[in-house]
Amino acid sequence: MLPKIHIIVGFIFSALVYFIYHITLLEASLIFLASFLIDTDHYLAYVFIEKDLNPIKSVKYFYKKMYKELKLSPKERKKYKKYYFIFHGVECWILLSILSFFYKPLIFILIGVLFHLILDEIEIYKIKDDPLYKLSMIYIYFSNKRKKRFL
After folding, report:
1. How many C-beta atoms surround the C-beta of residue 60 within 10 A?
2. Which pairs count as long-range contacts for 54-62, CB under 8 Å and 24+ apart, including other chains?
3. How many degrees, rounded to 5, is the angle at CA 82 between CA 81 and CA 83?
4. 30-47 confidence digits (pLDDT tens)
């Protein structure tokens, strides 16, 4: 899903949570920020793969990849490796969940992350992609075996 959609929908969601559950502005802000800043793992993946720190090139890289990949059929897409997005996986949610017992603001970050992932899963469903690929780094590791890199 495009970042601007995550930002707009994340703002609406965090505002609704703010007004319905009467949380603090800081707590609502944490939900909002987490609902789109989780995608910094895309930048980290780019840095790791391309050995380039330029954030603008990173954005262009993923947009180019996304548009090319969407032209492929779902069957064709399955032939290519998926990226490791460390903040999207269940491994990160478990860590956030455990740490939130000791530091309560993390629960609001977890809410924002989970909302982001719901939006991602809706998008993945719409394009008929593998619904598990963003949900676990362990799954990606095993599913990437014997696949080639796209782009």
Report:
1. 12
2. 61/151
3. 125
4. 999 999 999 999 999 999
